[in-house]
Design goal:
By secondary structure, this protein is of the alpha+beta class. 25% of the residues lie in helices and 31% in strands. It has 4 helices and 10 strands; from the N terminus they run E-H-H-E-E-E-E-E-H-E-E-E-H-E.
Length: 167
């Protein structure tokens, strides 16, 4: 497995996690997307975890999201996003990222613990803190189509942080 320096990935995510500029509903048109002056984000909605998230366009049709109860580091729910390879590539799905959901108190304890960071806080509402953690390396053989697409997706999410909206 090729490893990317975790601190570099986390630094890039930290820099990229700023809020997207607020726009009026009609500001971006389909013509803007076609012309390349705006991106069409891929939207994922989790009824179980009660949030929606927008991913960069390169993620469209290349991932699977699954929500489940989770107690890692004091969280209470997680949605794990796995890379969805083409069946012809004969490689298994691997985790791209996870969004863990904490209460504010549980997040304060988890964030204060010694050791490497658990993830980066994307947003929070009155009841929950949403934290993202990324894959630390590419699990696929270098030079393969799966490895290239995995890298493309990871770079896209680092350069254009996912926008998460609690529901």
């Amino acid at each position: 497995m090729r490893k990317a320096p975790l601190f570099l990935a986390l630094a890039l995510v930290t820099a990229a996690c700023g809020e997207r500029p607020v726009t009026k509903k009609g500001d971006i048109t389909p013509a803007d997307v076609i012309a390349g002056s705006a991106q069409a984000f891929d939207h994922y909605e989790s009824a179980e975890a009660k949030f929606g998230i927008d991913f960069p366009p390169s993620w469209k049709s290349h991932y699977i999201g699954a929500a489940h109860a989770d107690t890692a580091f004091g969280s209470h729910m997680a949605v794990v996003f796995q890379f969805k390879p083409d069946p012809a590539w004969k490689v298994p799905p691997q985790t791209l990222m996870a969004v863990r959901i904490f209460t504010p108190d549980a997040w304060a304890k988890a964030a204060a613990r010694p050791g490497p960071p658990i993830g980066i806080k994307l947003t929070q509402d009155a009841n929950n803190v949403y934290v993202v953690s990324l894959a630390t390396g590419n699990p696929y053989k270098a030079g393969t189509t799966a490895a290239d697409l995995f890298d493309t997706m990871m770079l896209a999410v680092i350069n254009t942080a996912p926008h998460l909206t609690p529901r």
